């Protein structure tokens, strides 16, 4: 391996040498500016004050599928978990994702078309449901997100004030709510 001359070597000409960077002295009388991330006014500490009954719950594709496997009625189990009226909301992207799954998930499609579900139109291109849910929750912090997907949960946890509903031990649970409710086990 060849050895190279350092750019600070005395044998180099003055114009080829690297000059040491000169540090600027800070003016002590200058006002120091610091950017602090702005949190929405609806947050009281880490809890969202915009959330209240009736709860609007954004439902993900896999949440419907796991609810079917666990033999849980979506609307009734949500009400058992939160002890209040719940309005499940489904976006066009989630509906498109369920339709793409085909015949195997026709029960999930029938549940998603239930008139008790509120249908939310999407104005963006593509049908990737996870991006759609994260974008909608970031804009409007009045939703609870119902999902079982670990990656989506990780993305939503980064958004302050958005509770997550998930399935564990054949019942719905919720995290990041002021009173962490849990559905009673029957």
UniProtKB/TrEMBL annotation:
<comment type="similarity">
    <text>Belongs to the UTP23/FCF1 family. FCF1 subfamily.</text>
</comment>
<comment type="subunit">
    <text>Part of the small subunit (SSU) processome, composed of more than 70 proteins and the RNA chaperone small nucleolar RNA (snoRNA) U3.</text>
</comment>
<dbReference type="InterPro" id="IPR029060">
    <property type="entry name" value="PIN-like_dom_sf"/>
</dbReference>
<dbReference type="GO" id="GO:0000480">
    <property type="term" value="P:endonucleolytic cleavage in 5'-ETS of tricistronic rRNA transcript (SSU-rRNA, 5.8S rRNA, LSU-rRNA)"/>
</dbReference>
<feature type="domain" description="PIN">
    <location>
        <begin position="55"/>
        <end position="154"/>
    </location>
</feature>
<dbReference type="InterPro" id="IPR002716">
    <property type="entry name" value="PIN_dom"/>
</dbReference>
<dbReference type="InterPro" id="IPR006984">
    <property type="entry name" value="Fcf1/UTP23"/>
</dbReference>
<comment type="function">
    <text>Part of the small subunit (SSU) processome, first precursor of the small eukaryotic ribosomal subunit. During the assembly of the SSU processome in the nucleolus, many ribosome biogenesis factors, an RNA chaperone and ribosomal proteins associate with the nascent pre-rRNA and work in concert to generate RNA folding, modifications, rearrangements and cleavage as well as targeted degradation of pre-ribosomal RNA by the RNA exosome.</text>
</comment>
<keyword id="KW-0539">Nucleus</keyword>
<dbReference type="Pfam" id="PF04900">
    <property type="entry name" value="Fcf1"/>
</dbReference>
<dbReference type="GO" id="GO:0032040">
    <property type="term" value="C:small-subunit processome"/>
</dbReference>
<dbReference type="InterPro" id="IPR037503">
    <property type="entry name" value="Fcf1_PIN"/>
</dbReference>
<keyword id="KW-0690">Ribosome biogenesis</keyword>
<protein>
    <recommendedName>
        <fullName>rRNA-processing protein FCF1 homolog</fullName>
    </recommendedName>
</protein>
<dbReference type="GO" id="GO:0000447">
    <property type="term" value="P:endonucleolytic cleavage in ITS1 to separate SSU-rRNA from 5.8S rRNA and LSU-rRNA from tricistronic rRNA transcript (SSU-rRNA, 5.8S rRNA, LSU-rRNA)"/>
</dbReference>
<keyword id="KW-0698">rRNA processing</keyword>
């Amino acid at each position: 391996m060849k050895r190279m001359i350092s750019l600070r070597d005395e044998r180099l000409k003055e114009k080829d040498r690297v000059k040491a960077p000169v540090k600027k002295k800070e003016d002590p009388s200058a006002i120091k500016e610091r950017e602090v991330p702005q949190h929405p006014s609806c947050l009281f500490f880490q809890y969202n004050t915009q959330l209240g009954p009736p709860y609007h719950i954004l439902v993900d594709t896999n949440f419907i599928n796991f609810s079917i496997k666990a033999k849980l009625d979506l609307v009734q189990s949500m009400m058992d978990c939160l002890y209040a009226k719940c309005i499940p909301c489904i976006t066009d992207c989630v509906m498109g994702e369920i339709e793409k799954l085909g015949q195997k998930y026709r029960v999930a499609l029938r549940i998603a078309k239930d008139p008790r579900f509120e249908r939310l139109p999407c104005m963006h291109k593509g049908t990737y449901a996870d991006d759609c849910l994260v974008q909608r929750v970031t804009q409007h912090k009045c939703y609870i997100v119902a999902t079982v997907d670990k990656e989506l949960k990780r993305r939503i946890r980064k958004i302050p004030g958005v509770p997550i509903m998930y399935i564990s031990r054949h019942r719905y649970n919720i995290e990041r709510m002021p009173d962490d409710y849990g559905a009673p086990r029957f």
